[in-house]
Amino acid sequence: MTGKDPNFVSLEERFNMNKKKKSANPKSQVDIDWKKPGKLFGGLLLAFILLIILLTNIYVVREGEYKIVRQFGEIVKVVNEPGLGMTIPFIQSTTTVPKYLMNYEISEAEINTLDKRRIIIDNYAVWKVNNPQLMIANAGTLVNAEARMEEFIYSVVRTELGRLAYAEIINDEDSSRGSLGEQVTARVNELLAADNYGIEVLDVRIKRTDLPVENEQAVFQDMISEREKIAQKFLSEGDADKRRIEAETDRQVREIIANAEREAAVIISEGEAEAARIYNESFSKDPEFYNLFRTLESYKSTIGEDTVIILPPDSPYARILSGITE
Q1: 145: how many CB neighbours lie within 10 A of its CB?
Q2: Cβ neighbours for 9, distance < 8 A, ≥ 6 positions apart
Q3: What tens digit of pLDDT does each residue of 85-109 get?
Q4: Cβ count within 10 A of residue 292
Q5: Number of CB atoms found within 10 A of residue 69's CB
Q6: pLDDT at position 1, please?
Q7: Are residues 220 and 280 in the same domain?
Q8: Which one, of 83, 50, 51, lies nearest residue 66 by Cα?
Q9: Distance from C-alpha of 90 to C-alpha of 46, rounded to nearest angstrom
Q10: d(CA 51, CA 44)
């Protein structure tokens, strides 16, 4: 075909026509250049916002804690296992409650003992949350739970110590009522369980026991007087034991001496009897010698250095003194 179709437009002609339009309207060219970067920025901003929302609604459950998931203030889930979780944006929120053991210092309190002594008690408690849902429902926060726990502990400690004497409180091992800490712990847990606070007290201990300043001297004097009475009692008991032991020893000594003297007298009498028998047997063989021996023995007992004896010359007793033996 040599003729040209009036509806046919070549590519070159179209390019030239578009170029002329752009040259005639430069403002339109500028608007077209800014559309693509604007869309890109908007997309990035939207992605960033979505990322922030996603990150802020992811929660981490660590070892030793509970995660409480709330929806419009109501508890919908309690997570106690470590891991990751996610809440519904703008609807749900999380609260962290510790699962580990906690130590709580109880305020000092002044109480009266059974023996009417005023003392200041400083306690501490070891406790934990065993039901976070009940704790939040009935106490609200950990601070409120600790406040209620402290009220119960103070009430129970005041009651229990009011039944004990001061000496039993100072030395808990000598108390006739058993361990004070165990009794207080058990009673406090009963009160907490009755009100469904969702917490448990593991131990309550007396950290320090002091006397009021105005009562220290009076109590010290009472303690000194009491110790003096105890010491005097020991001394009196010691003296009584001493006298009892001495009396018993003297009695045993007298019995031993009496038995010894009795046995000695028996032995002496037996010896004298045996000696007399021997003498009799010996002297019976020579009566004259026996008489002479008896006379000489009598001289030993009757004649001394200054003894004067007046005897007739023919007296048999004087004959031996005079040397006459026939």
Answers
A1: 23
A2: none
A3: 877 777 878 888 899 999 999 888 8
A4: 13
A5: 19
A6: 44
A7: yes
A8: 83
A9: 17
A10: 10
Among the listed residues 297, 280, 306, 287, the one whose alpha carbon sits nearest the alpha carbon of residue 317: 297
Q: Are 122 and 149 within one domain?
A: yes
Q: What is the pLDDT of residues 142-200, one digit of tens each?
A: 999 999 999 999 999 888 888 888 777 777 544 554 578 888 899 999 999 999 999 99
Write out the two tokens for 274: 């045996």
Angstrom distance (rounded) from CA 240 to CA 234: 10
pTM above 0.85, yes or no: no
In a domain, 17, yes or no: no
Do 109 and 193 lie in one domain? The reply is: yes
Residue count (the chain): 326
Do the domain assignments include residue 150?
yes
How high is the pLDDT of residue 64? 85
Question: Residues of the chain whose pLDDT is less than 50?
Answer: 1-9, 24-33, 173-174, 177
